[in-house]
Amino acid sequence: MVNWANFLSQLFNGLVQGALLALISSGLTIIYGTLGVLNLAHGAMFMLGGYAGWVAFTYTGSFVIAVIVGTLFVMVVGVLTERGIIRFFYNRPAEDQILVTFGLGIVFVEAIRFLFGSQSESIPPPPFLAGITNLGFMVYPTYRLALFGIVVVALLVLYLVLYRTRLGMIVRAGIEDSTMVDLLGINVQRIFMLVFGIGAAAAGFAGIVNTPVVSLAPDVGEPILVQTFVVVVIGGVGSFPGAVIGGLIAGEIISITSMFNPGYAYVMLFVAMTLVLVLRPYGLLGTAGRE
Amino acid sequence: MLRFRPLLVELLTAVALIVAPFVLQPLGASPDTVNRVLVWGLFGLGFDLLFGFTGLLSFGQSAFFGTGGMIAAYLLTRMGFPSVIGALLIGMIAAAIVGYVIGLIALRRTGIYFAMITVAIAEVFYFVEFNPLADWTGGENGLPGVPMPHIVIGPIDLDFNGGWSLYQFFGICYFIGIVVALRIVRSPVGAIFRAIRDNPERAAAVGHNIHAYKLTAFVIAAAYAGFAGGLLGVLQSFMPPDAFTFATSGQLVMQTAIGGTGTLVGPLLGAATWLFLQDFLQSATPLGAAWKLVLGLIFVLLIIFLRRGIAGGLVDLWHLIRRPRMVATAPAVPKAETARVTPHRPPPNANKVAIETRALGKRYGGIVANEDINFVVHEGEIRGLIGPNGAGKSTFFKMLTGEVRPSSGQILMFGEDTTNLNVTAVCQKGVAKSYQINQLFTKLTARRNLMISALSRTRGPYRADLLRNVDHMDELNADVDETLRMLDLTARADIPVSQLAYGEKRRLEIGLALGTDPRILLLDEPLAGMSPQERADTVTLIKHLAIGRTLVVVEHDMDALFGMADRVTVLAQGKILTEGTPAEVQKSAAVQDAYLGGVHA
Fold first, then answer.
1. How many Å apart are CA B559 and CA B41, to the nearest integer?
2. Interface test with B, best of A89, A106, A112, A237 (most B CBs within 10 A)
3. To the nearest whole angstrom, how far is the Cα of A222 from the nearest Cα of chain B?
4. Cβ neighbour number for residue B108 with a 10 Å cutoff
5. What is the mean pLDDT of residues B489-496?
6. What is the SS3 assignment for B60?
7. Share of chain B above pLDDT 90, in %
8. Window A:39-78, CB contacts with B under 8 Å
9. Which residues fall within 8 angstroms of residue B586, CB to CB, at 6 or more apart?
10. Mean pLDDT over all residues of chain B?
């Protein structure tokens, strides 16, 4: 017997998780689209955002400062990683890029484990967003409701950056044809650095705003990375709208399946991914030649 | 090194396995760690065949490791299966079957998609094992009580009961594993694996069904993983659920990269480094909690600076020491007679059509690349194909070989419809192309390159002759030697293609097409970038190739082309402009218009 209030709240959970996945996947997909690098440390970036914010929170007690610090910290880590390591891999095979980012992900996770231990940490939602809200048809935690809004705003900001700025135009052009952008005399080096920073920051921001919902642990990024991959395969690599749609689909699949049996959430995700691979091999909004 | 000294690796491995306990025991190594190294080494053999040799980086091997292990453990602990070895083999077969099904899905895509899909697979298996199948797998408790192997063969009664005694059993398993892996590497399948790693498109173009070969590599890797997973249960007397975690796949990838990919022994070296360092850091240093951080840093540094890992580094060092001798030994081989003498070629057979296209067309969206091409070439003919840039010559060629599917019309090769066949199937029909831009297997030698082509002719698009040795295929090797002589590459046959001179690479490019012994040979600008002398030699070579074959040649060097072609077809703006003997075409006003834009005297 399906409980409708429960069903609705799960549906909304799916929306929140989907928006979050959409944001993280957008970061991954613009990095891949522009730089041609699949960042396996993306889940670790999500985790780093959470920890940096948590440290800031323990010192200041301010959630807003925690969010700002978490996001900026991961952006800086992203930029340093790109300048220090990733840029030496642009001319190396894709396997090497995957291996080095995978290794970096391990290093980030283990460094955090070494510094803060394996126990889980959490940040309470800011006081003005604590408690629950009665929406009439259901009661829902206020912070989760706000989280949906926060993530949607972040996605909008990313959209504006990608579709309304010069940088965004270059990034989108680079996704279509990176050689051509190179030939047009654009400083690709600087663009690559910025894109890696922005992509990482998207994951870091998601990591910190998610901590009041899911507590922090060093390996909190691992399932996120897996889910992000499914989102990108479903939506199509290099496509921002694809990441958003894929994220929402994945979020709903996870939460609706979890209502019946959480053990099957990944199975259903995998089934959805397989269906897309069989019916539309390049993803819902992807095109051939972007891999 | 693997090729020149047969059985050397087997011998060294056997000696190392026998000597290891006598060296490691006094050093205080625990047999448990040594056995664990063997389990990971065996696991890694399959992974190295998949990643190191075939170029498929999978992060999903834990799925097969866990599946094989759980099935073996379930048989032994819950069903009272009497034979440990039997259970291990059943687990291995089950993992291979699962690998086949998963491979069908994962191999739909390549590159980063393949990596992402395998990550997802690993996670799915973990959750399935933990939750829906918990009644069978013990969920988070795993399956305790896996027995040690006990083998009775007639009067021989072998009881392996842990520690160094169990090492004997594991050592034998590893030895069998590496012997089989070495045979696979030396087989035609192994040669094609490496060709796929180097240049999958060309491997498909010379007639190999690369999807089937990739699936083969995937299944082999799954089988190794399944068997190793079973051994893990035996080692611990308990099948742990964490065999299924993504971290297991990650550890395998890292160990293999640390030890050296594409070397087979690399995974064992990597596992030894990983596990002994882990033991050492945990027990002897204050860095205990950070052992994985240290190993992660080592891994990242190796990827940055020593991509070929420990084994690769050792091999490079060995070559560095030996290099002076190797260069000096290349003997001067006199130029083949064929390179100088212009042959007498029988005239084309006007009664037999080799290639026919009917109203062939290709559009890309609104852009028309080719339109209404009716093209007939007779058997034994050399047909020249010319046209200004953008005339649609390349698209037309790609449609003939099956690289591009026509939008309209029909292609017949010797009367057989090949319109909807892919490049591999068209090649198997006896049609091959040499590319305008070299598409070689750059990490392999010239001899190996030609062998890859020849293998598709003798073996068809796919054959699983995993245990046959390519070096013992005498007829094949004789053919390759003959082709090398014809191409004047005999003296340079055994150095990697990347070290060949440009002209040599161009000849090898033609040779790759020739190696499949095609009835129809398409040459796309065979003279591009050559010196005048090389051009003259290559024209002579092409005339030789035309004996008993039908040739279509795209070439911008008009003098050379008019000198060798029986007839010439002119393409302009995607259509056939005119066609005739070289003399007729040279005089044609329409051709001069097309090339010079009407400004002719």
1. 60
2. A106
3. 9
4. 15
5. 90
6. coil
7. 50
8. none
9. B562
10. 88
